[in-house]
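Sample intake — HTH cro/C1-type domain-containing protein
Collected from: Streptomyces fumanus
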Amino acid sequence: MTVSELEAFTVWIEEVIRRRGYDIDSPRGGGKSRLADEAGVHRAAITRLLQRQSMPDLETMRRLAHVLGIPLREMLIRSGRLTEEDLPLPSSPDRLDRSGGERQQLTLEEAATALGIPAEQREMFLRVAGQFLPAPADRDLPARRSRRG
């Protein structure tokens, strides 16, 4: 990771954090602490990132992506840890519609069934797999838990 990759990632993630309502600019705004608490990470990890000292580890990125409502795939690519070639999007997983032969996008639930994911592991599969999808509005997942405002 280069200094410019860290700088570019930090500029991007700061904007995402602000748009999600976390006050990270004022010393007493509490946004860094609230973000750390909601993500279940140490406040120091947030501080080091925002001060451009270090990139978060994979687990911290995963937790931040979840709380901020962005795909983990996007965070990993923007951080420079992986490339789009490393994490390619599936080429339109689809299935035949029984009524007219047209193709429709495969849902995560259908994918879980096709892959034989046991019922007791299905919810976890949907959460983990859903993190790699590009747009939350297009997902076939239960609604995200509401964040404290």
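Post-analysis note: The two ends are 34 Å apart (CA to CA).
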